[in-house]
Structure formats: structure tokens, C-alpha cells
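# step 3/5: fold
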Amino acid sequence: MNIIYLHGATATHESFNYIRDHLGQDGISINYDSKDGFRHNLELMKEELIATNKMFFIGHSLGGIYALHLADSMPNQVLGAVTLSTPYGGAEMADFAKFFLPYNRLLRDIGPMSWAMLVAKQIKIQHPWTNIVTTQGNAQWLPQPNDGICTLSSQKYREGDMEIVEVPYNHYEVVLNDQVIKIIQERIKKIK
């Protein structure tokens, strides 16, 4: 099994150090820059992974959206995924904020009406898939319950076709948590 780590927007593969250390498997860490645009990054990721089989994705936030797109484009090479704090419904505030920052590539890519999110909403999940929903945090600018970055409703957007597991941590604590490690280990064990 090849574990593929996909970090969140504005982060790097270093955000998975704690998880990698506890899983005892380095895997393949994919780095990308949100300024380059979702489609461009997705194509580079496909090229990097084209010869990789038995992939199991661990994606944080936007990394989970990339994992979903990748799994759809190479279904015979994928075993499953655990995503963390992934906003499958998109970042609602991004569609509003992009009017104030019209040249911000990330804001154009993460809103519910963006290409990346509209396509993701249509993807049929074909593999065992778990999204760990982070329920703690309170960004005042988000009008709904949130983890400090993503609303809970966006994280639960696909609860009809993937397993949803709620944990009492915020958007960033999720990658530094033993309970999350245990969930990931259990999902990997089921696939093996």
C-alpha cells in the first residue's frame, strides 16, 4: 500500500509529520502551491502518481478535494482514503471574499461554485472513504458552526456516500491527534 499525503491550502507536507511518525510509513508526500490553481496542480499530481498503484490517500482540508479528484481519475489504482477537515461543500465565504480579492487564485478555487467544488460534488465515490469532521473552533466571520476554517455543514456535505467521523478538535489540531491516528490505522487495516 502506498500512502499519499495531500496537505491543505497554504500548508506543506510537513503538516503530516506527526501522522507519518505514528503510522511508521513515510509514503508519498505531494506538495503544491495554491497560487498555481487547482486544475494545474491536479494535472501535476496525476503525472506524479500515474505509475503508482494501491494508493491510500490521507488528505487535509483542500488536500481531501484533490484526493477525491485523483481517485476519480485513476480508480483502479486507489484503495481508499481518510480525509481530515475537508470542506466537500466548498468554502462558503470564498464566493463572497473573491469580490474583495479578485486575483486570489485560492478563493476562486474553493468556493461552492468553483470548478473544483462543482466537479467534486458530482464525483461518485468508488472506494472506502472516511472524512474526519472537526467540530471545535469558532471563526466569528463564519455564520455557521465551524472548526475555525471550515463549516461543519461543508465537511458533512457528502455524508450520504462516505463515512463521517466527528472529533472534538479544530482545523489544525486534527493533524496532531492520537484519536485521529487510531482512526486512520483502523481504516488502513480494513483495506489490508
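# step 4/5: annotate
Strands lie at 2-6, 28-30, 55-60, 78-84, 129-134, 163-167.
# step 5/5: archive (pending)
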